[in-house]
Structure formats: structure tokens, C-alpha cells
Specification:
By secondary structure, the protein is of the alpha/beta class. The protein has 11 helices and 11 strands. The longest helix has 18 residues. The protein is globular and about 75 Å long. The two termini are 25 Å apart.
Amino acid sequence: MGPAIVLVNNGLIEDIVEKMPANIHTDCIDIGDKVLLPGFVDTHVHINEPGRTEWEGFNTATRSAIAGGITTLVDMPLNSSPVTTSVASFQFKLEAAKEHLHAHCGFWAGVVPGNHQEIAGLIQAGVFGFKAFLSPSGIVDFPNVNESDLSRVMPLIARHRLPLLVHCELEDTAGLPLQKDPFSYYEYLASRPPAWEHNAVALMTRLCETYNCRVHIVHISSAGSLKIIENAKAKGLPLTAETAQHYLYFEAENISNGRTEFKCAPPIRDRANNDLLWKGLENGTIDFVATDHSPAPPELKQIQTGDFTRAWGGIASLQFAFPALWTEAKKRNFSLVDVCAGLSEKPALLA
């Protein structure tokens, strides 16, 4: 579609047309240098309510989303308490969300060891799909799964054609140096090497093929994962991937020691790696960008101490999703249409 006219009636968009219909008489609004864009969709948001509402709740999270142009988001099954791993906990979360939403909100449920009998009920209750961790999540009541756990649930998820979202890091500390300096960003970066991600992505690619289950790799941080994903897509596997704004905007070279506000998992890597992530986004290996919005109080982020070994791993970024991405994208000759596809159309297809 080329140039078009947006028809608005009583504050609601009624249609998008190439020419003004002859039977419509209305006022035209010139928005000048502003840009009219579709509402963004963020499918990776940790709202934390109920149970940890002081970290973030539906009221503030959805207000932040709207402030940043995000009109639809999908809430992760952690870090709320209880975590969303059963029908009962899902209903509890729905009750907590009532009267507090300022944007459209959907929900993922969690896969954890032992909750395979809850999967069918959660599907029936209306979750959009499931999230699992292959390494410790940081939340005790949301433990990571192994291949055996996934093999029990993926056939059922596949039958319903829902996606399984996976945090891809397979921890292997053999041979890794201990983090001696708790304030060193580079020691933190070295403590979660790219191989953890590559091995996990390879595992999920194999399981995706075995069960023909939609698999979505969340927050790709290492460019070394891109070839694995590219090969899976070339085989026609139902596998998709996202990265996050912080992996595209920030660079390890510019993160000083003690700056725990930059701690996340997987970690923010170096400039050369992140340039390759941009190429992966450009060529479609990475499908879209999602924030992985994961707020926490300053004391949990260890802002005062600068201790990476104790700081919560998560970056709060909902309202900055578009400006952060566009600031870098326009330097690399991405168009607004490209950015809107990565923030609206493609994440909507996942959910």
C-alpha cells in the first residue's frame, strides 16, 4: 500500500483508504513532522504482579507501554508470585490484572519440572503459549527444565499449534574462571559464554524438528547462534527468534565496572557481535525485537554497591522500545516500515 488516509471516528480508527470516499465530509488533521505508526506489540514483558508488585505491576507496566507506543503486550509467567504454571495461578493473575490494564495484555504460561499435567488446562484457559528456561531463571519457584521435561509437553503444545518460548543457555561451568572481582563487567560477561547459548539453541532446534513444535528462541545475544537458526529455517522448521533492544543499542566496550543497571542474562556482548545481530535482523534470521522488560527495585539491582555477582539480572525498557531501536536502526539504513514490522507485525504473529 502507498500513501493512504486514516479515517477516525470518535477517537477510533474506522478504515485506511487510498482515496477519501465521496460520501464522507470531515476535517483533515495535518500531523506535521510526527509519524503515524501502528501500535507496537511486545511479547516479552515481566510485569511481576501479583506477588512482586513493588517491582512492577499491571498499572505502571501498561502505562509505560502506552507511553512508548506499545498497545499490546504479553506477560511472562515469572516473576510474579505465584508463577503462572498452573490453571489456579493463571486465574489468580487474571484477577490481579482486572481494572489495572491500560493496554491490551495477553499471557504466557510456564513449563517447569513436574507441571506437565497442567498444560492442557492452561491451553483451555486461554494462554497464548509457554515459556521455559534451560538454565536457572533466578526465581526459585520457576526452575529450569531439561530435555526430558520438554519431551513430555512438546507433543501436546505442538498439537495445539502454540509456541514454546525458550531461554537458551545451557550452563557448563567446567573450565570457566571464577568471578574474582564482583564489580567487573568483563568478568560477568565471561561467566556466561556464547557457547552456553549456542548449545541450547542447537538442542531446541533438534527438539523442534523431533516434535514439529513451534519453538521461539527469546533474546538472542550471541551472533554465533544465527547460523544454527538460519539452518533450521532453511529446513522449514517452525522456529523463530527474537533479540532485545539492549543487545542492539548497548556494547560491552562502553559498560564500566560497577554499572549493574546493564546486567542481564544472556549478557550484553561486544560491538562486533552486536553488528552481526543487526545483520541477522536485516536478513530475517532474527524475526523481531522484544524488550524482555524486567524491572527490579534499585537495591536488588545493587545500584549502590555495583556488585554484579549479587545484582538482579534484568533491564527495564518498555517505554524506550521504539526510540532505542529507531535511534540505531536509522543509522543502519533501516526504514520506519522495517522497524514497524519488527515491533508490530512479526511479534503479533508469534502470539
